[in-house]
Amino acid sequence: xxxxxxxxxxxxxxxxxxxxxxxxxxxxxxxxxxxxxxxxxxxxxxxxxxxxxxxxxxxxxxxxxxxxxxxxxxxxxxxxxxxxxxxxxxxxxxxxxxxxxxxxxxxxxxxxxxxxxxxxxxxxxxxxxxxxxxxxxxxxxxxxxxxxxxxxxxxxxxxxxxxxxxxxxxxxxxxxxxxxxxxxxxxxxxxxxxxxxxxxxxxx
Length: 204
Prior knowledge:
Mean pLDDT is about 85; it is low at about 190-204. The relative contact order is 0.14. Helices cover about 65% and strands about 0% of the residues. It is elongated and about 55 Å long. By secondary structure, the protein is mainly α. The protein starts with 14 loop residues before the first helix and ends with a helix.
């Protein structure tokens, strides 16, 4: 989560931030599963079309959820960084969060534009078609698809890096970075010694 000056009295993110974080992870995972299913597992054209429309629908949902998340964070308070976390590591975390948000907002727009340029429209969860943003342009559609695939791979790599960093904090540094984002009931209970150590760090 993007932070500059956190609240030393907080140990976790607020429930909305945590819920939307894991919702976004579920949606993005579904998008990638659908994308690979279209390529490798679709057994008929009708099945491929259905998977494509679901892939597009989840993409639009991610865009809406991400936008809502960015709005909500303006009214939310965040826990402080671990006191012993180096400044370079904090900057790396902040810039990776910037990149994640940028990709999550850009990728669905690229997909929507590619769909329209190809001459198709997004059928949102088979409930109705979204209006086209641009007209049909097949050469442009090919270019947009190439960019969409590239950004998708970059997003996948960034998510892997983000997850690896969270596990590094949890198992190697043994700080509260991952715990702060876990849903209620999932967080590791800190031992009295660890809790005292955490409070001591925050008081420095």
